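User: Sequence in, structure out. Go.
Assistant: Echoing your sequence, followed by the structure tokens.
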Amino acid sequence: MPIQRFHNTEDAREALWVRRDDPRLVPRIRSLWAFASRLAPGAAPRGVRRFRSSEDAQRDRDEWITQRAHALRAARRDS
């Protein structure tokens, strides 16, 4: 990867962006998804779920995150 020099942080921040029509965009997204799945394997619950309120939805999401964190810790401890 070539070295890039920037005059300020804004120039550096803009260099991270990829235009929608850039052919490198799809491979970058796939690479990011692959990295994320290696970092934290598993998947979120699938399907459409209905809740009576946003609080119920948030509670369900918090439960799922807690269960997922426990599962990841157990898997890393066992390996």
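User: And one key feature?
Assistant: Residues 9-39+52-78 form one domain.
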